[in-house]
Amino acid sequence: MSTLQLSLAIIGGIVLAVIVAYNAWNTHRNTPRRALPESRDGREGQEPSLPPEPALRQEPSFDGAVAPAPMPLNEPSLAPADPDVLAQQHVPTVDAHDALHIPTPAPAHERRLQLDPLIDAMASLLVENLVSGDAALAALPPTRRAGSKPFAIEGFNATTKLWEPPQPGQRYMAFQAGVQLANRTGALSQIEFSEFVGKAQAFCDAVNAAPEFPNMPHEIARARELDQFAGEHDAQLSFMLRARQAAWSPGYVQQCAARLGFVPGPIAGRLVLPSSTPGQAPLLHLACDQHAALSEDPDQSAVRDLALSLDVPQVPRGEQPFARLREVATALCQAMDGVLCDQDGNPLPAMAMDAIAADLEQLYDVLDQRELSAGSALARRLFS
Asked: Where is the composition biased (Basic and acidic residues) (predicted)?
């Protein structure tokens, strides 16, 4: 073999080795990162510094009461027994003719109920005789909505002297019906108000009550004003975590997020960071592509982008949710070799996040002044 042939063979071998090495490196680079197996002590390696959060609590809904949760924290009870609070509440009275009069609703800060005149159009339903809870339950409409707006009926318990959704085995001195004035679908419409009147009237006919409905034009005007306020002060922040190099598998994402306290949400590919307070909405949401999470082999599914979001009106200000979002984003980017971006994929500098934090403080102040503090029951209903 000549020197030229030997040289060409060596060069060809070197080129082939380089190609094989590059292909192996490129394959490894583009293979989604997988979740690491746990060691005997349950650890998976070095963990981010944020402490894990408690398990996700169920959120209260407009349609019914929430099952009681453990109360190690300062969660208000649904049925306060404070004598001062009870003394401030108005109770029905019986006049000389035994006719019962519905009380005027207490101020929002004194009431821990479903209905509230601040965001509901309310009707008084007067009865002459006590109505059993079983009869009231049987008379309730099959749906708890009027169009797209939540609808509810409450009874004034003759024993506890408190407003509550009708309960079996109880007796009620009066009732009130209400429909929400606005939510994220828009303001209460005339058609929805008419449906509310029809549902309330049917209930009255069943329990022999006399309704006193509010003026429709007035309530529609209130609904539009409330909807305008809500639209101007609704903030739903969403950021993108983007992989710098190697993609992530859904299992790897869940493992890294679990170290920061995230737990699986009700939808595949969705994780939530629970609140420290029972009954409150999750602090943060972390989502990847649902198709990747539902694939037959999730370890081979490549995820390059994650959505990290905060529904501002749903989370109490005291939880410092935006500060937690920044901490979580930093920890995840460091652990997963990612970068925090806006929804268009542009990296976000610290100055941009500082400006958002300042704007949120002003938003919190406005909501507080309107008695719709972020995370409160009323705010969660209005911004839903």
From this structure: 35-46
User: One fold for both 83-231 and 234-382?
Assistant: yes
How many C-beta atoms surround the C-beta of residue 266 within 10 A?
7
Place of tokens 């949760």: 69
For residue 148, give both structure tokens: 């797209």
Q: And the tokens for 331? A: 């920890």
The answer to whether the CB of 226 falls within 8 A of the CB of 117 is no
The three-state secondary structure class of 380 is helix
The arrangement of secondary structure in 83-231, i.e. its CATH architecture, is 2-Layer Sandwich (3.30)
Packing angle between helix 350-369 and helix 321-336, nearest 10 degrees? 150
DSSP bridge partners of 141: none
Q: How far apart are CA 362 and CA 356, in angstroms?
A: 10
Dist. CA 336–CA 246, nearest whole Å: 9
Task: Provide the residue type at 308 as one letter.
Answer: L
User: pLDDT (tens digit, 9 = 90+) per residue, 203-249?
Assistant: 999 999 999 999 999 999 999 999 999 999 999 999 999 999 889 98
Q: Where are the domains of the chain?
A: 83-231, 234-382
pLDDT in tens, 70-106: 333 333 333 333 434 333 344 444 343 333 344 444 4
Q: With CA atoms as reference, report the closest residue to 241 among 308, 309, 289.
A: 308
**Exposure of 73 in the CB half-sphere (CA atoms within 13 A):** 10
CATH number belonging to domain 234-382: 3.30.1400.10
Which of 99, 96, 92 is CA-nearest to residue 175? 92
